[in-house]
Amino acid sequence: MDTFLQQIINGLTLGSVYALVALGYTMVYGIIGLINFAHGEVVMIGAMVSLSVITALLGAHVQLPSVLIILAGLIVAVLVCMTLAYGMEKIAYRPLRKAPRLAPLITAIGMSIILQNLALMIWGRNYLTFPTLIEPTPHNILGASMTDLQMLIVALAGLLMAGLVFIVQRTRLGMAMRATAQNPQVAGLMGIDINVVISAAFVIGAALAAVAGLMVMTYYGIAHYYMGFLLGLKAFTAAVLGGIGNLAGAMLGGILLGIIEALGAGYIGDVSNICGFPWLGDTLQEKCTASDGQLSLFGSNYQDVFAFFVLILVLIFRPSGLLGERVADRA
Amino acid sequence: MNRPLAKSIPPKVWAGVVLLALALALLPFVAAFAGQAWVRILNFAMLYIMLALGLNIVVGFAGLLDLGYIAFYAVGAYVYALLASPHFGIHLPFWVILPLSAGIACAFGVLLGAPTLKLRGDYLAIVTLGFGEIIRIFLNNLNAPLNITNGPQGVNLIDPFRIGSFSFARPEVLLGVAFSGPQKYYYLLLLITIGVVVVNLRLQNSRLGRAWEAIREDEIAAKAMGINTRNVKLLAFAMGASFGGIAGAVFSATQQFVSPESFGLFESIIVLAMVVLGGMGNIPGVILGAVLLTLLPEVLRYTMEPLQNALFGRVILDAETIRLLVFGVALVAIMLYRPAGLWPSAVRKRELEVKGGAA
Amino acid sequence: MSVSSSVLLAATSIGKRFGGVQALTDVSFSIERGEIYGLIGPNGAGKTSLFNVLTGIYMPDSGNFTFDGAPLDRLKPNQVAERGIARTFQNIRLFQNLSALENVMIGRHIRTHAGVFGAIFRDRRTLAEESGIESRSYELLDYVGVANRANHLAKHLAYGDQRRLEIARALATEPKLLALDEPAAGMNATETKALKALLDDIRRDGTTILLIEHDMKLVMSICDRVLVLDYGKKIAEGSAAEVQKDPKVVAAYLGGEVTLNLRRA
């Protein structure tokens, strides 16, 4: 049983990844009101592409330090994902900008399916392993351990998020994005090219997604054509939790969700331990003593359910999220 | 469109109906020439028709996007499985369990809908998707500490439908004609499907159906006209869920085996694709969509694999992948070029034309 | 429930704020049964906000309404309609892709009862109810003068017909109070005259009318009493003639001390 602090550290790491992916969702939703279902798949493609590049370089016995090999994989993945997102937006979403909300949502689902199956065709059905290039040396922090990798993920994610905030707050493109997010029509009238802004949102989101994909893959050591779906859904939950359309919200939501998940998975066994209940019959007493006093109704295999429950609860009780949503006025 | 209740039916229509009835009656024998598997495929088509029509009430009539519809199918299927198999040792007859399946699925529909129907369209979609996944995860994990669903192994040896000593699963000779198990099921399913279609048609052309249309067209105006939109939407959810539950129970009995695998997100999306492809809200269109999307992948499987074997010596794309790719592309293409579906309802066509897709 | 008092709707100190804007402040008025009551004021005065608060789309921050002897507190729009207040919208909210007849039939929803079982089993009572809904809807279409377009889609109707269709739909709910938001907007003189005749018919047939309008000729010629709002506050209430001469009202519309020459039509 890990300590509370350990769970926090784990949650922080996972949450940083969620945050990066959530930013992609939130930017797109904030500007055009579309839930980009295929975003999770972009994360997956990022992971797979970087894996292929890295494996290829290793296989060709290229003499480069591990860091550069990973970097190469990362750069290629980012480029591929950015192109992919740009293409998707142009072909499948742009024509439907004026359509009722149902249409682009269905298209996004369709794109998600297409990408998954393309990945299946290219990389096959099996789980692919990521070669350990960075030794996960743990460091002791107040009794809990945090590996190099975890620190790297958190640090890199933080850096990227800071970079995004810089772009959004301090550059002309960022200002254009903020204007379009508030009122696309008027922004257009002021001379902003909406298409460029929207493409930028997709492309930047995709870049972050690619990095997130690589992170997830190095953290868990495996990649799989189906990995994007659940991750994407959780990241979307994080975006909603923080307040859709709100960048700070996405970051906060991501980290919070990661921590909630880690704590939940860590403690659900204890919380639902029915051996702790005083009024149980004899049959359960036997089973309890047989399994060291631990008979949990719900185990950590229910981990994925947490995100969904959080999503449902947030949408029912506080649909605008923790920090408030920022969506364009579409009345 | 809401036509006044028809009083007389012209003779031409009667002739068409008789021909159709004849064709439907002979179909299982025609299919059997190609193999019993095709009769089973026909039966699946009808199950999907039931599902698509059920989802059509939610998505097509009331305009609510439900991405977790398969959860109700799952609930109905497991209710039947748990009450008619060796798993708990309970063996209730099917005509007792069917209403239970419908009722429990309906209850889940109300449970899901009550807090969530006030959400706007895309949020409702995500929440229903989450619900579908939650159900699947629970079905997959409720095997410890108390074994309720038997987890990923599923429940097998489920009783087939039986009336007295007449079982639908056994091949039998009736009135001098040999019927296989699937063929017997075919007729039962046909009856149930026709019932479902009739109920849907009646729902569409009624006070309730108009209320659903009103909500879909302009919810604020509908409220201003006194329609309790929350309850009416909840009714749509509940009715859709009930049909899903019935279909699930039938699925359980015909397959005689259920496992959480059959009830994932893709299944929900497939049913949605059928509704969208066929023409949301339009009953004949949705039936067409269900039939096409059930038969087409099977046709592909029977042609593509041998073809690939002949050309390349092996199968590059297996049937499942092809099926899913086709779905994905179909969804995107339909939305871009024919958003109202292949056979759209007149109303939907108008709705989607003005705001319109690419073409 | 129905009190024999002559007041149908009484509003007391209604206040509503939207973010930084105080849309309504301390608005009180009363509408007598059977009268046509006008609500006027410059753009932005809060007229539609008052409508929205009355019909349950927004909740007032302060104050309350009493309708037909009973309070109208915190009711949702569909409950308000059920109590007997039906409205039309400034921007016309018809069910565009449905026919005129279907629009009105939907208006009959709250006064009818058939549910799921009726829909599926089509018993005698349901069939009779459906037939009643249809014939009553035709009657109402005829009443407002759109009967010959019954099967046309709402969005294909001429603008004036659309406005009248919206009124027919509202009437289908059997309201005690019909609240119309700028029914004459965009109408020419002939159409306005026809509208006036329709409103007179509606009043004669027992329905009280609350009317937001900018067309002063119409207001002065048909309204028994008028409420004038400016910047969310009531600045005058009284008969059309009185209000017309009120210097505060004149100032609100014209911003100066000018007497207007508004003759009755």
* Unreliable sequence segments of chain B: 354-359
Helix content range of the residues of chain A, please? over 70%
The whole-angstrom Rg of chain A is 21 Å
- Multimeric status of the protein: heterotrimer
Per DSSP E runs of 2 or more residues, the count of β-strands of chain B stands at 8
Beta-strand content estimate of chain A: under 5%
Could you explain the architecture of this structure?
The complex is a heterotrimer of chains A (331), B (359) and C (265). Chain A has 331 residues and is mostly helical. Chain A is built from 12 helices and 4 strands; from the N terminus they run ααααβββααααβαααα. In chain A, the strands form 2 sheets. In chain A, strands 1-4 form a two-stranded antiparallel ribbon. In chain A, strands 2-3 form a two-stranded antiparallel ribbon. In chain A, strand 2 (138-141) and strand 3 form a beta hairpin. Chain A is globular. In chain B, strand 1 (84-85) and strand 2 (90-91) form a beta hairpin. Chain B is built from 13 helices and 8 strands. The longest helix of chain B is centred in the C-terminal third of the chain and has 30 residues, at 283-312. In chain B, helix 1 (11-34) packs antiparallel against helix 6 (181-204), helix 2 (36-61) packs antiparallel against helix 9 (229-255) and helix 4 (94-116) runs antiparallel to helix 9 (229-255). Helix content of chain B is 69%, strand content 5%. In chain C, helix 3 (100-107) crosses helix 5, helix 3 (100-107) runs parallel beside helix 6 (159-172) and helix 5 crosses helix 6 (159-172). With 265 residues, chain C is α/β, with parallel strands linked by helices. Chain C has a 6-stranded mixed sheet, with helices on both faces. Chain C has a 4-stranded antiparallel sheet with strand order 2-1-4-5, covered by helices on one side.
